[in-house]
Amino acid sequence: MIVVTGATGQLGRLVVAGLKEKLPADQVVAAVRSPEKARDLGVTVRKADYNEPATLAAAFEGADKVLLVSGSEVGSRVPQHRAVVEAAQQAGVSLLVYTSAPKADTSPLILAPEHKATEEIIRESGLPYVFLRNGWYNENYEQTVQQAVQTGGFVGSAGEGRTASAARADYAAAAVAVLTGEGHANKIYELSGDVAWTRSELAATISEVAGKPVTYTNLTPEQHKAALLEAGLPEGTADFVVALDGNTRDGLLGEITDDLRQLIGRPTTPIADTVAEIVKSL
Fold first, then answer.
1. How far apart are CA 135 and CA 191, in angstroms?
2. Mapped to the 3 state alphabet, what secondary structure does the chain carry?
3. pLDDT for 245
4. Which fold has domain 2-134?
5. CA dihedral in degrees (175, 176, 180, 184; nearest 10)?
6. What is the number of other CB atoms lying within 10 angstroms of the CB of residue 152?
7. For 38, what's the count of Cα atoms within 13 Å in the CB-facing half-sphere?
8. Where are the domains of the chain?
9. Residue 117: Cβ within 10 Å count
10. CA end-to-end span of the chain, whole Å?
């Protein structure tokens, strides 16, 4: 039996759908905070709240493998993830798979510290593990694409930094491959798209797909933060966005590996394909 945490999230739903294609539905458990939101998944649903350890113990009962989809509450993830690891230990699972971040144990990426801490907790647990160090998702730029089509441009402070992104479905397929395959225990996969692109190249792609001029304007970090504040973002969020652009500028999201391609057995989804889907939906 395979348990997927965060199964009503965008990644979790795709993983559950992929598992159902390879396993009987009664072998898949969606462990979710709000069970009523998971009724359409077509698998066993159990309540699992990262902040309520007792629910985790019940959700993991009888589990062979667990996919820990990292929590969305930045700043709270380490204690939440620790509770999941402890419940997995209690259940005696044979494999704990965790969605981490690129080079989590060494990277200065703003998102890395909580992932590094979680990886350490998992290693110390003694459980067989797999770290899926997911790179950036094409879909992270949905709002950027929408804004660019509507206004003819977008701004940032990433300079000529590259992003080796892939579609969320690609990362979900990798998780399914690891959960249903053999020989993955205690491995770390650095997952990225096959192509790394700059913001200027993204603008050119949006322009081509939308059939209208689109420009990217590179700002200093200070100018970028001012623009975000003017657009109504809270200061903490603005600082986070600027820091991510700084990480991109420094090359932390641009490294290409073939781990994702190898796991899913096909090329990763180009950013242009995702841009086309977003533009089509407008």
1. 6
2. CEEEECCCCHHHHHHHHHHHHHCCHHHEEEEECCHHHHHHHCCEEEECECCEHHHHHHHCCCCCEEEECCCCCCCCHHHHHHHHHHHHHHHCCCEEEEEECCCCCCCCCCCHHHHHHHHHHHHHHCCCEEEEEECCEHHHHHHHHHHHHHHCEEEECCCCCCECCECHHHHHHHHHHHHHCCCCCCEEEEECCCCCECHHHHHHHHHHHHCCCCEEEECCHHHHHHHHHHCCCCHHHHHHHHHHHHHHHCCCCCCCCCHHHHHHCCCCCCHHHHHHHHHHHC
3. 97
4. Rossmann fold (3.40.50)
5. -20
6. 15
7. 25
8. 2-134, 139-163+194-254+269-281
9. 17
10. 40
Q: Considering the entire predicted model, what is its pTM? A: 0.95
Helix axes of 10-22 and 168-180: crossing angle, nearest 10 degrees: 40
Token pair recorded at residue 176: 């399914």
Write the pLDDT tens digit of every residue in 207-239: 999 999 999 999 999 999 999 999 999 999 999
Residues 177-194: tens digit of each pLDDT: 999 999 999 999 999 999
Average pLDDT on 67-73 reads 91
The CATH-assigned architecture of domain 139-163+194-254+269-281 is Alpha-Beta Complex (3.90)
Q: What average pLDDT score do residues 23-45 get?
A: 95
Place of tokens 């889907």: 277
- Vertex 106: Cα angle to 233 and 197 (nearest 5): 55
Q: How far is CA 40 from the centre of its chain?
A: 22
Amino acid at 142: E
